[in-house]
Amino acid sequence: MFRSPRETAPCSVAQELGRIFHPVPVSLWGPLALDYLGVPIVVGVHNVVVQDEAYSDAIQKLVASGFERTDFDRKPPAEVLERLPDPERTVSKLNEGYKNLDRSSTTFKYPSRLSGPQEQVVLIPNSFAHLPVWPFKSTLNPETSQAAFAESHYNIYGNLAYPLEQALTESFVKAAVDEGTDTSDISHWGELLRSWISMMVGYLEVENNVLDGCDDTRAVEWFSVNFGRKREAIHGPFDRRVSKRLGSGKEPPVDMRGHPI
Q1: CB 19 within 8 A of CB 167
Q2: β-bridge partners, 122
Q3: Could you check whether the bond before residue 125 is cis, i.e. omega within 30 degrees of 0?
Q4: Neighbours of 10 (CB within 10 A)
Q5: What are the angstrom distances between the C-alpha of 195 and each of 17, 87, 183?
Q6: pLDDT digits (tens, 9 = 90+) for 238-259
Q7: β-strand partners of 163
Q8: Sheet holding 45-50, edge to edge
């Protein structure tokens, strides 16, 4: 698959969430943010981030709009579960791999009037997501450094913000570092964060220098070892060719980013 052009407006899901949360500022995260930037990804769960001080207010706004608190549904399809020797243990182990996310966030089921029965919203406080704090665009003087900071890190639409490449990469990396300090092995949540970062490095213009301005030395080192300069020194440049038969001579003439090879 190849990257898509960056969107120029919020998707219908984000617009509806922005209306529900208004005037609380909301940042899109996870698949919603990746899809906006052009990563070809299925958006099945809607991750949204609010500042910690607005977290309780955001929960109340969802409840008032008919959303129901629920546990995150990670159960495999019924036809898979019925073949497992111990389905409950399997689901329990799966959820265990997301325990840090689950205890730090609140999951909601959409009301039937808004969406299908399987879609969920995961509300996440920014102390967990590590996105840069952004102000309302309507309150910004376009001549100020604050406005320049906001526009260099986000595309902002009213109370909705889509983080751009550097801000989103740094956010995912810091969350992955946090996850690594809380677990002895790579958890399911840690693997999911790694997959998001890998997609950004593969499909988007995210280069080795993306975190050069970051003052978190742990995040900078983690990215360098796993995706950046130190990884490249050992394994060579990131392979962005698109083919199931690399080396066959039948690869497309462009890479994952759409650049000529």
Answers
A1: no
A2: 47, 107
A3: no
A4: 20
A5: 25, 26, 18
A6: 988 887 565 666 678 888 998 8
A7: 154
A8: 68-70, 106-109, 120-125, 45-50, 26-29, 160-163, 154-157
Residue 181 has pLDDT above 90, yes or no: no
Residue with tokens 């005037």: 23
* Structure-token pair, residue 233: 């020194």
What would the two tokens of residue 167 be? 């801000």
Q: Quote the pLDDT of residue 74.
A: 83
d(CA 127, CA 53): 10
Instruction: With beta carbons less than 8 A apart as the criterion, state whether 23 and 51 touch.
Output: no
Question: Are the CB atoms for 147 and 140 separated by under 8 Å?
Answer: yes
| Closest to 192 in 3D by CA, of 70, 97, 128, 256 | 97
Instruction: State percent of the chain over pLDDT 70.
Output: 89
Rounded to two decimals, the pTM is 0.89
Per DSSP bridges, beta strands 45-50 and 26-29 are: antiparallel
Are the C-beta atoms of residues 15 and 32 closer than 8 Å to each other?
no
Three-class SS of the chain: CCCCCCCCCCCHHHHHHHHHHCCCCEEEECHHHHHHHCCCCCCCEEEEEECHHHHHHHHHHHHHCCCEEECCCCCCCHHHHCCCCCHHHHHHHHHHCCHHHHHHCEEEECCCCCCCCCCEEEEEEHHHHCCCCCCCHHHCCCCCHHHHHHHHHEEEECCEEEECHHHHHHHHHHHHHHHHHHCCCCCHHHHHHHHHHHHHHHHCCCCCCCCCCCCCHHHHHHHHHHCCHHHHHHHCCCCCCCCCCCCCCCCCCECCCCCEC
- Number of neighbouring beta carbons within 10 Å of residue 159: 18
Give the pLDDT mean for 24-45.
Answer: 96
